[in-house]
Amino acid sequence: MEQDQPPSLFELSIDQQAATTLRTASQWGRFLSVLGFILGVLILIMGFVLYNKLTPDYRGAYRGSPALRQLAIRYLIVCILLAAVFVTGAIFTLNFSNRTTTALNTQDQRLMNSGLAAIRNGIILWSVVFVIFILLTLLLFAGIYS
Amino acid sequence: MEQNQDSSLFGLSIDPTSKNHLAEAAKWAKFLAIIGFIMCALIVIIGIFAGSIFATLTSTRYNRFEGETDVSTQGLETAMAVVYILIAVLYFFPCLFLFQFATKMKAALFSNDQNTLNTSFQNLKKTFRYVGVLTIIVLAFYLILLLIALAGSSVSR
Q1: I want to staple B47 with a disulfide (CB 3.0 to 4.6 A). Which of A125, B85, B97, B146 is the partner?
Q2: Which residues of chain B, if any, have pLDDT below 50?
Q3: CB burial string A70-93: b at 16+ within 10 A, e below
Q4: B29 vs A16: CB contact, 8 Å cut-off?
Q5: A119 CA to chain B: closest CA distance, Å?
Q6: Residue of A nearest to B114 (CA)
Q7: Does the interface predicted TM-score (ipTM) exceed 0.90?
Q8: A11 in reach of chain B (CB within 8 A)
Q9: Which residues of A touch B15 (CB under 8 A)?
């Protein structure tokens, strides 16, 4: 196991200060991940509620129109995608928090590496999401001003 | 230097695997922070031009109320500008912390400097803490709004 390989005296290590910092980061990470799960579920519920309101339950002038049904489906898809992003992000953050805390408690190098990989994955996920968000915003503005 | 302090022979280390993960995390974190800075700038620009954007939207949709729209949306335009700029300011700090995490991590891995590594982890912690505290404040704000709305609806009955 990687755990048993002693680090060289001159390489970087998780010293007392780094361990304390990572422990606090893990606590906040756990809190954020719980919020992420709740937000994901709320977005999903909101999506399904609005989908139901816009389709058979809708009593307005556009009742039964295909355009309204398409709008409802698009809205639901956006909500499902958003919920998936939040839940996936929360899973990565929770993995980082749990694995890092356990690694610090048990001095398990493999778990520490796994925790660091989880935070890397979380950062990659949000980077990709933000790029897509910026592109969509720019497209929206192009649409408004064209 | 702290490089040789507190690192027991059998403690956790930054081995080649963790170095790879941290280097890649730093690379993406720098990218995410730069995107964040760009978004802050975009939000400020949107805030500044919120008036004209809003005017464009209202003039195309409500042009039958000519003249009236300018008067009724003036206050709203200013409020929108202030809110957007406030959002940009609030969003700037986590990006700054993330950027510092990334740059310090790269430097630490390059120079094998324990102090810089610790500072980098501190910036990661600051990012999480900032986002956590901000989320608590936003949730509290929403809760207050909900209570006000509930109180308002019960009074109006």
Answers
A1: B85
A2: 1-8
A3: ebbeeebeebeebbebbbbbbbbb
A4: no
A5: 7
A6: A12
A7: no
A8: yes
A9: 2, 5, 7, 11, 109, 113
Q: What is the pLDDT of residue B10?
A: 57
B123: left (phi over 0), alpha (psi -120 to 50) or beta: alpha
One-letter amino acid for residue A140 of the chain? L
| pTM confidence score | 0.82
Beta-carbon separation of B21 and A104 below 8 A:
no
Report d(CA A85, CA A127) in Å as an integer: 12
DSSP conformation letters of A49-98:
HHHHHHTTT--STTTT-HHHHHHHHHHHHHHHHHHHHHHHHHHHHHHHHH
**What residue ranges do the domains of chain A occupy?**
17-145
CB-based contact A112 B18, cutoff 8 Å: yes
Residue whose token pair is 């507190």: B6
Helix axes A66-106, A16-54, angle to 10 degrees: 160
Q: Is pLDDT of A60 > 80?
A: no
Question: What is the distance between the alpha carbons of residues A79 and B63, in angstroms, rounded to a whole number?
Answer: 33
Separation between Cα atoms, residue B121 and residue A12, nearest integer Å: 13
Determine contact: A88 vs chain B, CB below 8 A: no
Mutate to test the interface with B, among A3, A8, A12 (most CBs of B within 10 A): A12
pLDDT-based confidence at residue A98 (cuts at 50, 70, 90): very high
Structure token pair of residue B76? 């709203």
Mind listing the pLDDT tens digit for each residue in B60-95? 555 555 555 555 567 777 888 889 999 999 999 999
Nearest to A54 by CA among B62, A46, A81, A97: A46
Buried b / exposed e along B140-150 (16+ C-beta atoms within 10 A): eeeeeeeeeee
**Predicted local confidence at residue B148, as pLDDT:** 92
User: Taking CB atoms and an 8 Å cutoff, what residues of chain A touch B128?
Assistant: 25, 28-29, 32
Average pLDDT, chain A: 87
